[in-house]
Design a protein that fits this description.
By secondary structure, the chain is mainly α. Helices cover about 75% and strands about 0% of the residues. The protein is elongated, with a radius of gyration of 24 Å.
């Protein structure tokens, strides 16, 4: 009888850990992704010993992390491209005005125009950041609800 109760406790602990992982993935929006790193490490460590239902949740948590990572990376690349293009435009503008030394810096930005490429990269970066935030809120919430109702993710059989 004690063997069955210890198996039940281990199952409850594994389920609770998966629920905490969803909370960590949700919190990643507010703490610059650090909780997501913790969640994905736990998910990778726990999925081999998990039941099929819990394994599907750990796989889903790993998928949530990598999709969010890819979208964040794309947003960062877009922002970096906008920054580089903006700095290049500023350098070209200062070169055209005859910036010859740091002692006589006088920049008149009234004639500086922002290129559509820069605006496009900034908008792309903002849209990707927004979509990442929505993903990190909606996907863990979906997984949490599925796990709380003791259902797996996808077409995995019940234990």
């Amino acid at each position: 009888m004690t063997l069955a109760s210890s198996d039940d406790r281990a199952s409850d602990t594994a389920r609770n850990l998966a629920l905490v992982n969803y909370g960590l993935l949700f919190a990643a929006v507010f703490f610059a992704g650090v909780p997501a790193l913790i969640a994905v490490i736990i998910a990778y460590a726990q999925r081999d010993e998990a039941t099929p239902t819990l394994r599907s949740h750990h796989d889903f948590q790993i998928r949530i992390f990598w999709v969010a990572f890819a979208m964040t990376l794309a947003a960062g690349i877009c922002f970096l491209a906008a920054l580089v293009n903006g700095l290049a435009a500023l350098m070209e503008f200062t070169r055209a005005n005859g910036w010859d030394s740091f002692d006589t810096i006088q920049i008149d930005l009234s004639r500086l125009s922002i290129d559509g490429t820069i605006v496009g990269f900034v908008v792309a970066s903002l849209v990707l950041s927004f979509l990442t935030a929505v993903w990190l809120i909606a996907a863990p919430a979906f997984g949490f609800i599925r796990l709380a109702s003791e259902r797996g993710i996808g077409h995995h059989p019940r234990p």
